[in-house]
Amino acid sequence: MTQSILTDIKKAAKKSLKAQKDVLANTEMQMEILNGEVFADGDLPYFKDKIAETGQFPLRPKKLEVLQINVGYMCNQVCGHCHVDAGPDRKEIMTRETMQQCLDVIRNTGAHTLDLTGGAPEMNPDFRWFVEEASKAGIKDFIVRSNLTIILANKKYHDLPEFFKKHNVHVVSSMPHYTRGKTDKQRGDGVFDKSIKALQMLNKIGYGMPDSDLRLDLVYNPSGAFLPTDQAAMERDFKKALKEDFDIDFHNLFAITNLPISRFLDYLIASDNYEDYMYSLVEAYNPAAVENVMCTNTISVSWDGWLYDCDFNQMLDLKVASKVKHIKDYNDEVLNNRDIIISQHCYGCTAGAGSSCQGTVA
Amino acid sequence: MAKSYYDPADLRKFGKITEWSEELGNKFFDYYGKVFEEGALSAREKSLIALAVSHVVKCPYCIDAYTKDGLQRGITKEEMMEAVHVGAAIESGATLVHGVQMMNKYDKLSM
Most B CBs within 10 Å: which of A229, A234, A240, as the mutation test of the B interface? Predict the structure, then answer.
């Protein structure tokens, strides 16, 4: 039974949940699941009650360090674990007008990191213009989250490594495993070989090389219903295997926990792993991770300019609890005086050594 | 009473054994935790040994736990299956080496 459901999922995985008109494309339905079941029954504590045990409720922001901008949900891949539900059929794309509003904020904010994500951010038609303009703002760390395969997807993207280098972009790329089988299962057939080729292209111009200032980091997401283990040990294994098998160098590996939302939630439910996964997350709860959880130093901006505590809250349509809700009205002071919106998905960022877009936090 | 001797959800309750014997339970879990730390053997190697032993002692809870642990550590399915074969080889070897005892006894009893 489970096997046939999984086969159906795999077949359907060419389209986003939204395009399939899946019930889980509805964020209210996702919230209902996250608030119900094992939590409503009292078997597991609500996240709010858990952080209250250590006096950490309500969760409040510290100084803004990272501005993360999602420039659109369109992607050339349809990954099984994607919390964005991104894919070729997603048409939500940031306009130049909204980008201009973002630039005004980038120039005036004290954030030291600008983090562009998607979808495949490179598919936004104004992506290069935006990078050129933003790179003039003097941000210390300018990240683009690239899925690697986009570089080989079309001729017009082949020069992306050179473009990144020209603007001193810090490239952060997903790589679920150093073996072909596991990578392709999560991200689609052929993704592994293309990713390897793209990494070699980046290495060739200096990205990821020891002592190079051209930063190339990899993101590891578990390809299934389990949590990531020790980030340093995984980094060691990745480095050894990628070097020996493909002569690839990179700087750091970020181990990121899959949060139980969107397509990953769909997978957990269909494979009958949801309850066990939530137990695993709660069991691995670490109050020290709450202290540095990324929503305390990050603001996430959606393709249409709305503001969120993090990219996950963006995908659950949970806008910031502040008078300022849109990039056009951005105000550091007002925004910083807010409570961060939390729910049970937040256990994903506080499990074990913690998890954020920059890897572990505790 | 449960209809089956084994319930996967019971694995989560393992820690509860301390409720009926706190001192011994805590000593066991302290020991257990210490055993699996990085040492002369890596935690990864220990996980594979644990997986092999889980099969030999035929403990469904342990098999669930160490298959998941292996996945978390990025251990491949090929590595996991080889570990299971190591356990199986020792177990079948342990059976077969007793064949020598049978041969000895046979010879001793035979004219």
Answer: A229
